[in-house]
Amino acid sequence: MVMHVPAEAHGDERGALLGFLDEARGGLRRTVLGLTDEQASSRPSASELSLAGLVKHVAEVEQGWVARAKGEEPEVKRDESNWHECFVLVRDETVASQLAYWDEVAARTEEFIRSAPDLNATFALPDQPWFPKERVSLRWLLLRLISEVDRHAGHADIIRESLDGKTAFELIEEAGAASA
């Protein structure tokens, strides 16, 4: 569900891109509004995706991309042995803990992007077979994150509606009432 993103100040490309990323995050975050961990972890379709898993996944993905842009390793190491865990709550994880983690990640993303000399700064794509050997800009990074979160927010809208019939419009109204 697309929400209005306020226009950036003239020439504030970072603000515009961060605004669209934040709007995408909100779309996914709202899909878990009012659900228990059990409900958010359920899979009401043929897909293995759950709302809790999508929240966890996008938080990890955002953190990992920003870490790579900084020349650091992602906080969570994923490989064939544990890849499936990025889409499910494990051990003591909860939806609330994943949302709190994502809040921290989002704050670090904004701080990093706002402090970068410019969006043309580049970093190497990971050395993985599905990536070309090239460098990409911080602008590319933000567009990649917006695309990733928006794609999964769309998945989440369908999952949520399958769970209890609530649509994005209803969840926007509920979120607004909760914050008032």
What is the strand and helix layout of this fold?
Elements: H1 13-30, H2 37-41, H3 51-69, H4 95-115, E1 122-124, E2 135-137, H5 138-164, H6 168-179
Antiparallel strand pairs: 1-2
Number of strands: 2
Cα-to-Cα separation, first versus last residue:
21 Å
- Overall geometric form: globular
Q: Which runs of at least 5 residues are low in confidence (pLDDT < 50)? A: none
Instruction: Please tell me the overall pLDDT.
Output: 92
Radius of gyration: 17 Å
Q: Give the percentage of residues in beta strands.
A: under 5%
SSE order: HHHHEEHH
Properties at a glance:
mainly alpha; two-stranded antiparallel ribbon; 57% helix; 180 residues
Word description of this protein:
By secondary structure, this protein is mainly α. It has six helices and two strands, in the order ααααββαα. It has a two-stranded antiparallel sheet with strand order 1-2.
Q: How would you sum up this structure in a few lines?
A:
The protein contains 6 helices and 2 strands, in the order ααααββαα. By secondary structure, the protein is mainly alpha-helical. It has a two-stranded antiparallel ribbon.
